[in-house]
Amino acid sequence: MLVLVINCGSSSVKYDLIETSDNSDVCKGLIERIGAVTSIVKHEPAGQKATKDSKNIANHVEALKEIMNYLMNPENRIIESPSDIKAVGHRVVHGGEMFKDSVQIDEKVLEAIEQAIDLAPLHNPPNLRGIQAAMEHLPNVPHVAVFDTAFHHSLPPEAYLYGIPNRFYRRYKIRRYGFHGTSHYYVSRQYYKLTDKPVEQTKVISCHLGNGASVTAINGGKSVDTSMGFTPLSGLVMGTRCGDIDPSIMFYLVEKEELPLNNLHALLNRHSGLLGLSGYAADMRDLITEAQNGDRRCQQAIDVFCYRIKQFIGSYTAVMNGCDAILFTAGIGENAPLIRKKAVSELSYLGIELDDARNEAVTRGKIEKISTDASRTDIYVIPTNEELVIAIDTAKIAQAASQSPWI
Ligand code: ADP
Predict the structure, then answer these.
(1) Which DSSP string do the residues of 240-259 spell out, in sequence order?
(2) Could you confirm whether 324 is annotated as catalytic?
(3) 314 lies in the same domain as 244
(4) How far is 314 from 330, CA to CA, in rounded Å?
(5) What is the pTM of this model?
(6) What percent of the chain is modeled with pLDDT above 90?
(7) What is the CATH classification number for the domain harbouring 234?
(8) How far is the centre of ligand 1, averaged over its atoms, from the C-alpha of 205 (Å)?
(9) Can you tell me which atom of ligand 1 is nearest the CA of 384?
(10) pLDDT digits over 59-74, tens only?
(11) How many helices (H) and strands (E) does the chain have?
(12) Cβ within 8 Å of residue 312, ≥6 positions away
């Protein structure tokens, strides 16, 4: 089944056309700076050179129209007509407590995603705009929502409750939700294919290290704890997000700097993390280069980033009473041997032993084992593929819908 996967940010739309009969990528692309004077469209049909154009794209509806035009461009036709696309899968960041699984989108689901805006004010509104725009352009196919939070529905109360009065959980659903669920799910499933151990007995720690970053403890195939929380701001230090901090720092800052609340929000989400620590960059490649040139703050930012990962590895090994495998994925996890090495250094007490040569020799885009053969815990680099998870879930739900006796 040909599935279009849509991932909308506030000023961007990522798209991916996937044939689910063989899980092949037919075409992908990215529209950035929607609403700015010039938007950028990167379009990449499989096996061909990517094109990059500047356009004026005012909103998400226009962006979707542009995507359809690119896919049907007579000079390089990917599809003959919109009806070639049989279903659309949407990444939705926050499903609240409502959605344990992916669902076909109808009025009720749209309403529920809207209700979750309160919980994810930065993410759910653009996700909704993307859904509405795609429904306008492809009205006759099933649209499916795949939630970042769904995989973490298995968290037990002791992992998802915060130490605040219980009525706030009951009244406002303040709890840990966790994010990057599709990625943690995908890499853990890739690992299960490599090991003989039954899934029910397998304990995995998955480290998704991109601009956003999170660690998840997966016991018996289920997420049992995860570093992001009520929002994607907590846990690891990230590109521009602070990760875990003592909440009192916020009161202190508000007082000392006379910060209005929305500035505090921006400070912790957009000006903190690696960027804030280094005072130089959020991008790990830049930090590594500058640290190698002797910049002390860039080095410190890297040190804090890795230390935090190590803390979570230790903590989740305790939570699961063991760990069979540590998995690294996403931009940093897949491409930065230095970070992987620092994150798992001196963990021999836990039976975790990195093979330096294997770690350095990882081929981009490949699944590679980077632990020594003697290590009690496997360490793997596993490239993530969130779009594929979304496409497969979407195809399954669309197929089931087409076989329903009610249709
Ligand atoms: P996003 O969360 O935006 O999807 P990605 O998964 O693309 O993020 O990861 C982006 C991060 O990966 C950036 O910090 C980038 O510097 C880092 N990265 C990508 N390639 C490398 C590399 N070769 N070495 C170190 N870091 C890298």
Answers:
(1) S---S--THHHHHHHHHHT-
(2) no
(3) yes
(4) 21
(5) 0.95
(6) 91
(7) 3.30.420.40
(8) 20
(9) 6
(10) 999 999 999 999 999 9
(11) 15, 14
(12) 205, 207, 215, 227, 235, 236
